[in-house]
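Researcher: We're teaching a course module on how sequence relates to structure. For the next exercise, students receive a sequence and then see the predicted structure as tokens, so they can try to spot secondary structure elements on their own. Here is the exercise chain.
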Amino acid sequence: MKISLYDRRRTGRMIMIIVSVIAIACFLFISNGLVKELAEQERERMNIWAQATERIAEAGVESDIEFMLTIISQNNTIPVLTCDKDFNISEFRNFDLPDKSEKDRSLYMDLGEKNRKYLSGRLRKAAGVKDIATLAETDPHFIEIKYLGGEKQYIYYEDSRLLRKISIYPYIQMIVMIILALILYMALIYTKRAEQNRVWAGLSKETAHQLGTPISSLMAWTEYLRAIGTDNEVTDEIDKDVKRLSVIADRFSKIGSQPEIEFDYLNEVVAGSLEYMKSRVSGKVKIELHVSEDDHGVNVSRALMEWVMENLTKNAVDAMKGEGELHITTGADKGIVWIEVRDTGRGIAKKHFKTVFNPGYTTKKRGWGLGLTLVKRIIEEYHGGKIYVKESEPGKGTVFRIELPAVGG
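Model: And here is the predicted structure for the students to work with:
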């Protein structure tokens, strides 16, 4: 049931992502619809502009030329030019010319060479190598104008500055929304981690404090039992357990504050931890230690590193249900020293490779699921290393790998 908690969280995150993607898609769909509608309106305006141009060319004495000229002059936003079938430009409007001194001109031949090249290049780039008559039938930005006598001219227009801005704006807004969402997410994660750190420190210190009183009392009782002649074998066993409790209390006190990090040798630390664990696990579990030839130096808190190895060993034994093989290997590579803990247990599904380090994750009916969380905290926050599931396959076992910075010695 505890595993399903993380499955539900993962499902919740996926739902949030899907809802966000759908919301963004709807936003872009609506925005693109508005852009398309505005583009169609500009197309209609250009058609009216073309018709007004035709009417002026065909105008008689009684024609309302002034009205048609008004229609033409009202276009002060859409870049437009007229040309013949050979792409020879005659007039233009609303283009941002390189030479600003000629911005008030409308006849192509009145322009300097620089601006003429600019307009000709824009037209050629839009038309490509196609015939302009074909473009007028297939490209909405080219419109054919028919004059009396069969003469034809063509209008080429581009999207207005407003339309270009509106078409880009939704994507800019989407990027800003994503950045803000990421900033908010990172702030929440940072706040959550800071709160978790305070909780860890508080719980650890309180646990060490609470253990202190009964441990002191047990020590006094042990001395009293010796004084009244209790069998030494009994008092020695009690003394061992009391010392063990003292070690546990010391570990919790180190978790609750910055532990003292000292130079030590990796093989010695690992071997010392296994020596303690071998007599406390099932005889059906075969434990083998494969150490590198050189005992590499590391800066560690020996008490906490022994706790790490004990946790990993216990997890491996539990995963094998008290029967199997446990191989622990040490080595060094490119400035790091590493430890690999390989078991022949039930394995871990790939989707849980990171989840196993989360507080509360456990596959056991009993337990809080904090062992690997403590291990990760000790390795990453106190020793500047990292721990991860190197490989695992359900039914075939798991390999945990610890990497620590190497130092000389």
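Model: If you want an answer key for the exercise: The radius of gyration is 40 Å. The longest strand covers residues 324-333.
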